[in-house]
Fold these 3 entries.
Entry 1:
Amino acid sequence: MAKPFLFSDFLKLFPSDNACLSEIKKLRYPKGIPCKMCNKITKHYKITGRNAYSCENCRHQVYPLSGTIFEKTTTPLRIWFICMYLMTQTRTKISIRQLQQELGVTYKTSWKMYHDIKNLMKQNNSDLLAESEEVIKWTLFGAFEFKVVQRQDSSE
């Protein structure tokens, strides 16, 4: 029997928004970030204070959250991850009101997060993005599985 994924495990694995962003980057670009300007996979550095990475050669910026449910959100990534954890690890269905209390966000925010995550699990066979050929499965906390795909630029 597999060891349960405890909240203490979650806290160690995702101590900050940067750790969550790094996880998404690793899943989205498993072979490295391809730079559109350099036309090759190059080393990218995290831009301080932003959810973006910059190419070390040409400074072209890449946003790993674009095209995901996290795009344009003002809610910290760690809160999103905690929400996914709570939605997958509770024995009974968690309510939006309970998410609001647990996450310390407004009802409107908890409603949006709840429905975005539920819709993600239902639509496109749980794909974060639907328009790609490269699909990476991500099983979060041993229970919540969705697929992350690397967006393919049509100009390539």
Entry 2:
Amino acid sequence: MSDAQIEQILRIKEAFGDRLIIPAHHYQKPEIVALSDIIGDSYRLAVDVSRTDADYIVFCGVKFMAEGAAVLANEDQKVLLPRTDAICPMAEMIDSDRAEKAFAILSAVSDRPVVPIVYMNAHADMKAFCGKYGGSVCTSSNAQKVLTHYFDRGYSVFFFPDQHLGINTAKAMDLDEGDVRRLRRDYSLVPVYEGDTSDDQALIYVWDGFCPVHQEFGTDQIESLRASYPGIHIVVHPEVEKAVAEAADSTGSTQQIYNRVIESPAGSVWGIGTELHFVQRLAAEVADRGVTVYPLADRICKNMDKTDLGSLLAALQEAQAIEAGKPSSDLIVTVPAEVRELAAAALNKMIAIVEGA
């Protein structure tokens, strides 16, 4: 860690004042989180960033997050991404052509009207796709509420790109096993549950994308922690496979996990199945209260890990260059106007559903 870089970052932040903010996802390195103004999961960041008046938003996360900020930002606000190569592999598992073909297939198969719901971990064009067809964005913390909104109105849902969040949410909502179908990337429809012989009618059709980090958690890791620490509470992110979610004591979004552990009584012991940077930082925050936190396994999001002090400093220096009328890099994140309008409709639909507007 470079003290000189930290000093430079702090000087630039001070010079801009409230005209510049640094939002950071929970999975960022501890030194990045320490320099950030807003810290949260994808939902909190989407809402908080949409409400800022700052001229410059230096987003420490991955590309789809910065795109979401650009969609909700005012036209005169600049969104910068310190590492433009920080992508989300899950978001790369579907594109406009695939989404259109999948939606057409499901609309022809289903007896109910179908609406697309996209997990926040997707690019702006996929959010625009949902806006185009009257759908919404959702996050791991509000998927149940968004799905319920559409189920109550007679829709079936095309849920993408993460199959596991869709399946685990359906399970948490006590949907019948026959109400869930997986749409493979070859466009074949298959049951999710072993032994399910019902037809292709479903309430939720999940695309078969996944998070490479959360895909690596297994039931054997849960069993090992339970054997080593009797009484431990295991909580996992709902992007894990169904068997892992069922073996855990509870599931929760990153922010929900954070809140539960922060508010837990002294002496409690937790095993957490999500990204390692977050788990380690959380463990450090609660250690002085006598709360113990163990990672289910050491799994780092390689793309979140790309943002470091050097790239953050470069992004802040680029904000200075823009201010001087001399931009010098491609760190500014832009979204085409037609995509922005439709994506904003889907993002704002989510906020309206969740916030009760």
Entry 3:
Amino acid sequence: MIVVETELRASPIHGIGLFASVPIEKGEVLLRPHALIDLEIPLSRLLGAPREIRDFFDTYGTVWDDKLSFAMDDSRFMNHSFRPNTRIAWDGDQWYYNALRDIEAGEELTCDYRDIDQAFDSYSHTLKNQ
């Protein structure tokens, strides 16, 4: 769940992106999981789903340990960068995203998909190949 002010805009990286509405300081938390917003679905439950559903989750979800994670808030529009301005971190049992550096208002928020999606390195997600 997004915990800082953001907005969606056209992205120079890909389609729609998530942008900071306010300045964000290095180390500040941007996202924290919430069970009602951040869903985990066993991949086995999706593999027999119609193509349109698999394509949707392939675009907006991430795969880890035979589960698809899907954010129902605008964080699903955060685009990939090999030089991201946010990172995923762990605090005991809970993950969160924080800023790797100061981020200006109006700047696109990015993450490295390799940190959150085991299928990303192959450039071919699990669901499209089923």
